[in-house]
Specification:
CATH architecture: Alpha-Beta Barrel
Oligomer: single chain
CATH superfamily: Metal-dependent hydrolases
Bound molecules: (4S)-2,6-dioxohexahydropyrimidine-4-carboxylic acid, zinc ion
Number of helices: 12
Strand order of the largest sheet: 2-3-4-5-6-7-8-9
Shape: globular
Largest sheet: 8 strands, parallel
Distance between the termini: 10 Å
Radius of gyration: 18 Å
Structural class: alpha/beta
Length: about 325
């Protein structure tokens, strides 16, 4: 008997990569999530209607091979010079979001945005088309622990400059970002990951270095984590789940790649975090309700079963160094 059954969740931020490895990552996400918003930091990036369709087709094929019914939501990468027509073409192809990567902020982002003025025409087109602007909110030129806070004024400028634009600030990691989101109007929301809700910089580097916890934005302090938990369990529709699951093969991790493969453990971590906060009854709203509402989607029809059942996270899952490897998690999840 499951200890908890919830509507099938959505993951509003996932990296499924490309090529042969995608099949395993897509199957892993489809095991627990009814829909997932697939990030566009692949090479070449989807920056046109055709690019969006092609990349989504490859994801659909990978999901179909998994045997799970799941729906990929498409995004495009916002790049300077792409132009209004390309943005409208992405919207016509079914993209629901355009992703703003500050140039150089993370994996495959050197072609990203140097400053918002470089994509003014594209942001206006997104506003007109009703697309969501998804933002990686870090200033790559600031010290690593200050990058998120340093970028908040840039987001503030976009919020003020495009009064109809709907915005998601991705993977919040600090008190400052939580406070900023609450200060902005309702058309601005945020995703929170399972790892930023569950871990701190001490899990990454407090003992021996565990690169499975190395991601951008970096895990922060206990105080930051507490603010993220408070936001996630508050029931506010402004905060919802995005895993930022970002698989890298062991050799890439060893070479310093940022990204945590969280899809296999995310639902287990979330159940534990919400339980610890005395808010298990709010889990469904966070993973299966608020994000769908923000993106204008119906909630999923299926169900996810969660059981209090300890399991040890393997070092490698799907050929990838996994988040929380070797830790014993207290919850297990499967489709009901
Ligand atoms: O740690 C990260 N890895 N953060 C990101 O924003 C991107 C991701 C990736 O694609 O590897
Ligand atoms: Zn990401």
């Amino acid at each position: 008997m499951p200890d908890l059954i919830i509507r099938l969740p959505d993951d509003f931020h996932v990296h499924l990569r490309q090529g042969p490895a995608m099949a395993a990552y897509a199957a892993r996400s489809a095991a627990h999530f009814g829909r997932f918003l697939v990030m566009p930091n692949v090479v070449p990036p989807p920056v046109s209607g055709a690019g969006v369709s092609d990349y989504r087709d490859s994801v659909r094929r990978a999901i179909a091979a998994s045997g799970h019914g799941a729906v990929p939501l498409a995004s495009f990468k916002l790049v300077p010079g792409m132009g209004r027509d390309a943005v409208l073409g992405c919207a016509a192809a079914g993209a629901v979001a355009g992703k703003y990567y500050p140039a150089g902020a993370t994996t495959n982002s050197s072609d990203g945005v140097p400053e918002p003025g470089a994509v003014a025409e594209e942001l206006r087109a997104m506003e007109d088309a009703g697309l969501v602007l998804s933002i990686h909110g870090e200033d790559p030129d600031s010290p690593i622990l200050e990058r998120e806070a340093a970028f908040l004024p840039v987001v503030d400028g976009i919020v003020g400059g495009y009064p109809r634009l709907r915005i998601v600030l991705e993977h919040l990691s600090t008190v400052a970002a939580v406070d900023a989101v609450l200060d902005w109007p309702d058309r601005v929301a945020a995703t929170v990951t399972a790892h930023h809700l569950s871990f701190t910089i001490d899990d990454l580097a407090g003992g021996g270095l565990d690169s499975g916890f190395f991601c951008k934005p970096l895990l922060k302090t206990a105080r930051d984590r507490e603010a993220l938990v408070a936001a996630a369990v508050s029931g506010s529709p402004r905060f919802f789940f995005g895993s930022d699951s970002a698989p890298h093969p062991p050799a890439a991790k060893a070479a310093g790649a940022a990204g945590s493969y969280s899809a296999p453990v995310a639902m287990s971590l979330l159940a534990a975090a919400f339980e610890e906060a005395g808010a298990l009854d709010r889990l469904e709203g966070f993973v299966s309700g608020a994000g769908a509402r923000f993106y204008g989607l119906e909630t999923n029809g299926g169900r996810l079963a969660l059981r209090r059942e300890p399991w040890v996270v393997p070092a490698i899952i799907d050929g990838v160094a996994s988040l929380a490897a070797g830790r014993t998690l207290s919850w297990a999840a499967s489709r009901a």
